[in-house]
Amino acid sequence: MRSPKSAKLELLMLEKTESQKTNQWVYQLLRTNLLCGKIQPGIPLTIRGVAEALDVSPMPVREALHRLACEGAVEVKNNRRVIVPLMTAEKFSELCDLRILLETHAAESALPYIREKDIVGLELIDAKIDEALKEGNVEDISLINQDFHRSLYSANPFQIVIPLIESLWLQLGPFSSIAISKLEKIYIVDRHVEAIAALKQQNSFALRRAIEADIRDGIASIKSVEGIHDYFEGVS
């Protein structure tokens, strides 16, 4: 990944694979930038501006933004501008409650399918998060953390809730990123270590508790940041 600068837009770039069509690449790239909070709430984008930044035609950008609007990640205005929606306190609380509900369910339903190789993989991902924390890389912290949760939940081959969870991540991503970037020191009780211990013990109660605590810690970090409510609707 690399972060090229544009006069109009700065995005975290992803390499386009040979098998990817342009519209798929544009969608995945914009989606990744929203998940890690690279595009902040309220900042207007234009289809033409995004197309120029990515050196593509407007059509795949328009299609990608339409898909993201359907996921609740962006809002398309009448003047063709696109923004990451501002938040309300009520919506924020609802999104956080839904995260806890869906992700504790996803973790518990994945538990019977967890094998030693899955645990090793999760430990490697958690080590990458520690490295990103040391480096203060805001985008990597968010994306690798999501990868940990996604890998855990995906252990269940019949899992159908992940798209719903990722929709919540898309809507909360910009606010998580703001919190991480503004905190002078990120102090985290490593709930992932607790979750991994619960997986090794096949302890569903401890696993649910660790995932819920992990999400609540993140919510508390966001709420503790001075000025975070400036990004909420109704607050000047």
Distance between the termini: 35 Å
Residues in helices, as a percent range: 55-70%
CATH topology of the largest domain: Four Helix Bundle (Hemerythrin (Met), subunit A)
Please give the order of strands in the largest beta sheet.
1-3-2
Low-confidence stretches: 1-7
**Average residue-wise pLDDT:** 86
Count of extended strands: 3
Overall geometry comes to globular
Order of helices and strands: HEHHEEHHHHHH
Given the helix and strand composition, which structural class is it?
mainly alpha
CATH architecture of the largest domain: Up-down Bundle
Provide the number of structural domains. Answer: 2
CATH class of the largest domain: Mainly Alpha
The CATH homologous superfamily of the largest domain is termed GntR ligand-binding domain-like
Descriptive report:
This protein has 236 residues and is mainly alpha-helical. The protein folds into 2 domains: 62 residues, Arc Repressor Mutant, subunit A (Orthogonal Bundle), CATH 1.10.10.10; 143 residues, Four Helix Bundle (Hemerythrin (Met), subunit A). It is built from 9 helices and 3 strands. It has a 3-stranded antiparallel sheet. Helix 1 crosses helix 3 and helix 4 packs antiparallel against helix 9. It is globular, with a radius of gyration of 18 Å.
